[in-house]
């Protein structure tokens, strides 16, 4: 690193020697060894060349996470449900989702039936092995892009798994996929945390990105969710979008202050080869690093003034400069699933295309299994993958108390 800095004349990275996407895992390891938060901060700066401000952030996040990382039973698990459908493709997104409007009705019905079969298999697996689901996360894609009937069937299938659940999240994401009826159905089934992801509150940016909704739709959706009674609402924003300015981000945070969601996540644009933006002319309008840094800093300062605290953090490949995606929460409103998934301290069972199952038991190697990303391959391989998941689960938990 020192040689590289000498040759390139670049300033030191605030992350020092840390290169992974989950830097908080190191902090938890040091805390496990008995170091105090101040001792961890000293090690980060001395042994890993982490900048003071970055070390402070990492330790703050880890201390907030600590109760969720160390206080759970071996057979507690999170459940992830992947629904890879969207209303339209966003310019910055590389996720291999399908457009729900282009899909035949029978194909959507077949997908829904297979997903429910997958969910029911997990329910049997949990019953047979004593695994208890303590958090559910339904992501995508945009799960609410499915029909009212499909959403209700899937949520009803999940309901038996939620009996011991302390958090149930659905990514409603796109306001053009959410209705008042869907909000009521989700809440009636037991969903208590909902994610509204405007990404930005400027109409010209929404239009350029392929987001087929208006700023007014965002406010309308937020009202639906508040009226439905969700205990936690999350909102996502992206810093560094093509044509975005510091003033745009300031306006985004003004909207946050007005609406007061319990969670806010600030992402930094990661330009991925699979995203349409990678080869689009708008790529030239991505703001320079210094401007993005000012956006991120102003967002952090505004959220801290409103008493949000950073509670989870991860870095991304292809992310500009030295940024990270940071989730902020009001007091007592952190997302249990986000912490458990990111820090890899608890088993996660994956359902649906592209989902990952990770069996994590102390003092044992993590065992993983992935579902195919393609919907057609997923439906064809489902029977075999359910058998493989059960065998893997049995081998991991056999004899474990």
* Biggest β-sheet: strands ordered side by side in the sheet: 9-10-8-7-6-5-4-1-11
User: How do the SSEs run, as a string of H and E?
Assistant: HHHHEEEHEHEHEHHEHEHEEHEEEH
The low-pLDDT segments are: none
Number of strands: 13
Largest sheet, if any?
Answer: 9 strands, mixed
Mean pLDDT: 94
Which terms would index this structure?
401 residues, alpha/beta, 9-stranded mixed sheet, 13 strands, 44% helix
Write a short abstract of this structure.
The protein has helices at residues 2-8, 24-32, 37-48, 52-70, 105-129, 148-158, 180-189, 203-209, 215-228, 246-259, 289-305, 336-343, 375-397, and strands at 76-83, 85-86, 98-99, 132-140, 167-173, 193-199, 232-239, 263-268, 309-314, 325-329, 347-351, 356-359, 367-370. With 401 residues, the protein is an alpha/beta fold.
């Amino acid at each position: 690193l020192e040689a590289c800095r000498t040759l390139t004349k670049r300033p030191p990275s605030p992350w020092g020697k840390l290169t992974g996407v989950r830097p908080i895992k190191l902090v938890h390891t040091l805390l496990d060894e008995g170091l105090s938060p101040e001792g961890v901060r000293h090690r980060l700066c001395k042994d890993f060349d982490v900048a003071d401000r970055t070390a402070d952030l990492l330790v703050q996040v880890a201390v907030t996470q600590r109760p969720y990382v160390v206080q759970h039973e071996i057979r507690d698990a999170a459940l992830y449900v992947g629904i890879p459908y969207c209303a339209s493709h966003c310019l910055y997104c590389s996720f291999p989702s399908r457009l729900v409007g282009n899909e035949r009705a029978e194909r959507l019905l077949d997908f829904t039936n297979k997903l429910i079969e997958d969910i029911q298999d997990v329910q049997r697996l949990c019953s047979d092995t004593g695994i208890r689901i303590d958090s559910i996360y339904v992501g995508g894609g945009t799960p609410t892009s499915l029909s009212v009937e499909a959403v209700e069937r899937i949520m009803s299938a999940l309901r038996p798994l939620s009996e011991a659940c302390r958090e149930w999240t659905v990514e409603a994401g796109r306001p053009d996929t959410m209705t008042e009826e869907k909000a009521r159905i989700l809440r009636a089934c037991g969903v208590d945390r909902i994610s509204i992801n405007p990404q930005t509150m400027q109409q010209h940016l929404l239009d350029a990105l392929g987001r087929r909704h208006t700023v007014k739709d965002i406010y309308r959706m937020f009202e639906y969710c508040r009226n439905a009674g969700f205990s936690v609402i999350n909102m996502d924003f992206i810093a560094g979008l093509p044509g975005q300015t510091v003033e745009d981000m300031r306006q985004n945070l003004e909207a946050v202050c007005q609406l007061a969601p319990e969670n806010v996540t600030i992402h930094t644009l990661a330009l991925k080869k699979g995203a349409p933006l990678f080869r689009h002319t708008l790529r030239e309008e991505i703001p320079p690093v210094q401007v993005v840094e000012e956006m991120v800093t102003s967002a952090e300062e505004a959220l801290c003034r409103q008493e949000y605290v950073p509670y989870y953090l991860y870095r991304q490949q292809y992310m500009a400069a030295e940024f990270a995606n940071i989730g902020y929460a009001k007091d007592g409103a952190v997302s249990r699933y986000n912490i458990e998934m990111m820090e890899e301290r608890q088993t996660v069972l994956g359902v649906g295309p592209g989902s990952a199952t990770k069996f994590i038991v102390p003092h044992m190697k993590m065992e993983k299994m992935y579902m195919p990303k393609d919907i057609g391959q997923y439906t064809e391989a489902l029977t075999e993958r359910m058998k493989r998941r059960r065998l893997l689960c049995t081998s991991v938990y056999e004899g474990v108390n």
